[in-house]
Amino acid sequence: MANRTGSTIDDLLADALIQKVMLADHVEPQALRSLLGAAQRRITDARHAASAPRGQDLGRRRPFRAPALLVRPAPRAAGAASLCG
């Protein structure tokens, strides 16, 4: 395994400045963690598939599905006009 000296995702998500930026951008930490975890699994699977001997049946992989809600909807101001009616 490679020697890792950088910050982990958990370290970054625990940083106070990162938390404030995510709050301002309405980013849900758990949804971001899920999205990054899914990306990590896809990269690991791709590396495994690349190292597999040719002709080996790797089986059918499910398509990638991103989390349904990565950001919180912004609160609407009182009396704001709506495009939906």
In brief, what are we looking at here?
The protein is 45% helix and 0% strand. The protein has helices at 9-14, 16-24, 29-51.
Spell out the blueprint of helices and strands.
Layout: H1 9-14, H2 16-24, H3 29-51
Tell me what the structure shows.
- This protein is mainly α and 85 residues long.
- It has a domain at 9-50.
- It is 45% helix and 0% strand.
- It has helices spanning 9-14, 16-24, 29-51.
Q: How many strand units?
A: 0
How much beta, percentage-wise?
under 5%
Q: Average pLDDT across residues? A: 76
- What is the number of helical segments per DSSP (H or I, 4+ residues)? 3
* Helical percentage: 40-55%
Low-confidence stretches: none
Broad structural category: mainly alpha
Q: Which geometry do the CA atoms define? A: flat
Q: Would you list the SSEs in sequence order as H and E?
A: HHH
Main β-sheet description: none
- Calculate the terminal CA-CA distance, rounded to whole Å: 56 Å
Alpha carbon gyration radius: 19 Å
Features:
85 residues; 3 helices; mainly alpha; 0% strand
